[in-house]
Amino acid sequence: MTGVAERSEGVTLEGLRKRMAEFAKERDWDQFHSPRNLLLALVGEVGELSEIFQWKGEVPRGLPDWKDEEKEHLGEELSDVLLYLVRLSDICGIDLGKAALRKLELNAIKYPVKLCKGSSKKPTQINVTDNNDGKSNGGVMAISNSDSKSRSDGV
């Protein structure tokens, strides 16, 4: 494994995938890296990430009021989440980069700019009809969401 100084160039998902595989192999941890175990570890790390924000209320972009130590800790927890996600996708045989690009394409279809720009509404909440209070919603057309019973967001 190389040091941090040697990684000053761009980081790729494939590079992280290879490094995580090497890291696990060197430690003989492949035997523990089942999809279930990695998912549970990922969930635990998301919990640790959540704790950082738990009592802070809304936080402005860029975290201008945060101390350097707090930002460093946040970076460590974000990295834990990313690394477990990359490892999980590798173990499951999913090309995470391709899957993410495909998901962006699907979201572009599900949330077309013309209908969704500036709105936080879900596709099932956007329609052409007037509201019950008689006010128009701007003539926004309905979007079908065949997936709405099992999904609540666009990601």
TrEMBL record:
EC number: 3.6.1.12
Hydrolase is among the record's keywords: yes
Principal location class: cytoplasm
Region annotation (Disordered) ranges: 118-155
One Pfam entry name: MazG
Membrane-spanning parts: none
Regions of compositional bias (Polar residues) in chain numbering: 121-135
Catalytic activity of the protein: dCTP + H2O = dCMP + diphosphate + H(+)
Cofactor or coenzyme needed: Mg(2+)
Residue ranges constituting the NTP pyrophosphohydrolase MazG-like domain according to the UniProt record: 34-101
Record keywords, A-Z: Cytoplasm, Hydrolase, Magnesium, Metal-binding
Protein's cellular compartments: Cytoplasm, Cytosol
Statement: the UniProt record of this protein carries the keyword Cytoplasm: yes
GO biological process: dCTP catabolic process; DNA protection
MF (Gene Ontology): dCTP diphosphatase activity; magnesium ion binding
CC per GO annotation: cytosol
UniProt xrefs under PANTHER family: DCTP PYROPHOSPHATASE 1, PTHR14552
Quaternary context: Homotetramer.
Function: Hydrolyzes deoxynucleoside triphosphates (dNTPs) to the corresponding nucleoside monophosphates. Has a strong preference for dCTP and its analogs including 5-iodo-dCTP and 5-methyl-dCTP for which it may even have a higher efficiency. May protect DNA or RNA against the incorporation of these genotoxic nucleotide analogs through their catabolism.
Protein name: dCTP pyrophosphatase 1
